[in-house]
Amino acid sequence: MRSGLNWTERLLYRLITAPSGVAEGLAQEKSLAPGGLTDIIAGDDRLSAEERVDIYANMYFYRLLDVMKEDFPATLALLGDASFHNLITGYLIDYPPEHFSIGYAGKHLADFIESHPLREEFPFLADLARMERALIDVFHAPDATSLDADSMREIALEDWPALELKRHPATELLDLQWNVATMLDSIERGDQPPPPRSGAVTMLIWRNRNRVLYRAIDEAEREELQTLAKGCTFAELCELIAASNVEGDAAAAINRRLETWLRDGILERVQA
Amino acid sequence: MKRENFPFLGFGVGLRRDHYLHILENQPQIDWFEILSENFMVPGGRPLEVLDAVRARYPVVMHGVSMSLGSTDPLHRDYLRELKELARRCNPAWISDHLCWTGVGGRNLHDLLPLPYTSEVVAHVAARIREAQDFLERPILLENVSSYMAFRDSTMTEWDFLTEIVERADCGILLDVNNIFVSAFNHRFDARTYIDAIPCGRVIQVHLAGHSDYGTHLLDTHDHPVRDEVWDLYAHAVRRFGATSALIEWDDNIPEFAVLMETADKARTIHQRVEAETTRDAIRSELD
Cα-flanking dihedrals φ and ψ of residue B203, to 5°? Predict the structure, then answer.
């Protein structure tokens, strides 16, 4: 090769990922003589060298666009095809895929949207993309046996206080500035989404029997779930729940919380 | 690498998400499944649960798209580690990937790009295959890709390039018959010449798929039924390679599972017909 395989691969990478197409990419290649691509890639009467590289450039973009459409259906529905297409064009320039799995290609979309002009029209757009990405992450999060009511009952009552608990790995807490969950629900139903309410909200996202679910949680539950992420004993957890219910019925609050978490599979028992 | 160490699996199809439920509920009579390794290289959840259930009933092979054996980046150790872990979990009959590069400089194009066919590149790719095989502690199969561009600096044919690499790396071949057909049109070579030059003892698996005709070129889209000309080429391959596990790939516009079953059955029928013809010819020549 003119300058070896590495030189050729890097050149083709630049041309294939050039934002405005191979022709413009070629114009930027100062080290290549005009028409220099034909010294590297063979063209013929059917397709020129440039057109052949263009086939790869198109496949690169549209394959990734298809993945983004699948991963961010609500963002797509909100923006429409043309605007989404332009968003992804810009995104791939700033965040070209690095991971070996194409499933991670959209990992930084919410971060990219944070500084994108589209936020002026849709100030909640980054939160929407962040929420959609979190749903994917939880769907593929590690497996673990969740603690349910039956297994809890099998544990002797006197062992409950020292029981080591933690949050199930297929759970995620997401702090948002907009409650975009209502938008997700509407878009999933095919309805016109209402504009989301502004204001800080924390979403709990979890997986139960391979379904990914979510709900808004209050500050007290957020703190409890954060403590659980680090791991704690059942007694410590009860103290924490009771502390935020000093004026109410602490025992009832603990019962309610436990019932919900055991039903949803939020807890995991730490085995010694 | 010894061909006898690779079982003949029969006629299988690619395991795709659209069919998970159908397969788990109906347990269709299909010989085997090929998984796209990367789809199952996730920490947990539904894909791995499905894989475990499918593996409990069917033979499975792992087919990857990210080893990037032709890249000038170092082999991706994290990828190989996760691949090995997945293999430990599902105990595949074999692992395959492509004769291509998929990225450079730490960036990924998520596409299978061709290489210049030179002796330097042969040495480069063969060394990387050996490194990957050592890490995975098993021989891999190398698949020929379809291509839309060719390099001026190439000094050999694609079939010589593939042959030299697999001989040097001592690995098997996953021969994609549709890819040969597509590339033969795109680069104006004879597809049968390609197949006739491939060393028989190294072909462990065959891929069959549909492609799209854009007039100026054919594109390997995996979104159509297998074309008649590709079936003819498959019959030619069976004549040369004998009993070889065959797999139907369908990745876009995915039809009902029954259509995939029919396509796998068609491969079986062609295989049986060619084997019968070969036996008949052998008897005739003995009588003559």
Answer: -85, 115
Q: Judge: A140–B79 Cβ closer than 8 Å, yes or no.
A: no
| pLDDT (tens digit per residue) in A5-64 | 999 999 999 999 999 899 999 999 988 877 789 999 999 999 999 999 999 999 999 999
Q: Do B150 and A42 touch (CB under 8 A)?
A: yes
- Helix axes of B46-55 and B77-90: crossing angle, nearest 10 degrees: 50
For residue B28, the one-letter residue type is P
Task: Show the CA angle centred on residue B14, arms to residues B33 and B213, nearest 5°.
Answer: 150
Per-residue pLDDT of B198-252, as tens digits, reads: 999 999 999 999 999 999 999 999 999 999 999 999 999 999 999 999 999 999 9
Q: Answer yes or no: do A29 and A118 share one domain.
A: no
Do A118 and A165 meet the contact criterion of CB atoms below 8 Å apart? no
What is the CATH classification number for the domain harbouring B167?
3.20.20.150
Backbone angles phi, psi at A215, to 5 degrees: -155, 155
Number of domains present in the structure of chain A: 2
Q: How many domains does chain B have?
A: 1
Q: At what angle do helices A49-71 and A125-139 cross, to 10 degrees?
A: 80
Q: Specify the range with the lowest mean pLDDT, choosing from A19-23, A107-111, A265-269, B192-196.
A: A19-23
Residues A37 and A114 in one domain: no
Q: Give chain B's contact residues with A (Cβ, < 8 Å).
A: 38-39, 41-49, 66, 70-72, 76, 78-79, 101, 103-111, 113, 115-116, 118, 120-121, 124, 148-153, 188, 216-217, 219
Q: Could you tell me the two tokens for B34?
A: 């090929």
Q: Which of A42, A52, A139 shows the shortest C-beta gap to B46? A: A139
Residue of B nearest to A206 (CA): B45
More confident residue, A3 or B169: B169
Q: The complex's ipTM?
A: 0.95
A148 with A45, same domain: the answer is: no
> pLDDT tens digit string along B83-94?
999 999 999 999
Using a CB-CB cut-off of 8 Å, the residues of chain A touching B120 are 1, 5
Interface contacts A/B by beta carbons within 8 Å: 128
B2 within some domain: no
Range of the domain at B194: 8-287
Query: H or E segment at A199?
Result: strand A197-208
Domain carrying residue A215: 72-269
Which two three-digit tokens encode residue B283? 């008897």
My answer on whether A175 and A262 are in the same domain is yes
Which site among A1, A3, A5 would you substitute to test the B interface, given the most B Cβ atoms closer than 10 Å to its Cβ? A5
Q: What is the CATH number of the domain that holds A200?
A: 3.90.930.50
A47 touches chain B (CB under 8 A): yes
Band the pLDDT of A1: cuts 50, 70, 90: very low
Instruction: Give dist(CA A166, CA A137) in Å, integer.
Output: 19
Q: Give me the percent of chain B exceeding a pLDDT of 90.
A: 95
Considering only CB atoms, which chain A residues are within 8 Å of B103? 13, 97
